Amino acid sequence: xxxxxxxxxxxxxxxxxxxxxxxxxxxxxxxxxxxxxxxxxxxxxxxxxxxxxxxxxxxxxxxxxxxxxxxxxxxxxxxxxxxxxxxxxx
Length: 90
Ligand SMILES: Cc1cc2nc3c(=O)[nH]c(=O)nc-3n(C[C@H](O)[C@H](O)[C@H](O)COP(=O)(O)O)c2cc1C
Known about the structure:
Layout: E1 2-8, E2 11-12, H1 15-22, E3 30-37, H2 44-54, E4 58-66, H3 73-89
Parallel strand pairs: 1-3, 3-4
Antiparallel strand pairs: 1-2
The site of flavin mononucleotide has 12 residues, from β1 and β3.
């Protein structure tokens, strides 16, 4: 599962809380988590990872995408390439 949120106040945007209240079957799933932010990612990824693990899921990779004006798409493409390489190895 890919799961990403914008950073609000150094944590995941509040829609994140709704996701975890309603999501079923997190148990046993592998997650790739990401956040977007302007400058300060804070503990967004750590908070997401903790919640996923509390419900029995695993975080297999994570990434912050920063951009003062816009997220750099080249960084997103690099991350996808990295994930593809990992998949090829497994
Ligand atoms: C209420 C609010 C709080 C925010 N808090 C942070 C923050 O703590 N750190 C940060 O780097 N960016 C913060 N941002 C910027 C958002 O993370 C950014 O807008 C989001 O990643 C989406 O990017 P975009 O506006 O280019 O679509 C905040 C934005 C809003 C609206």
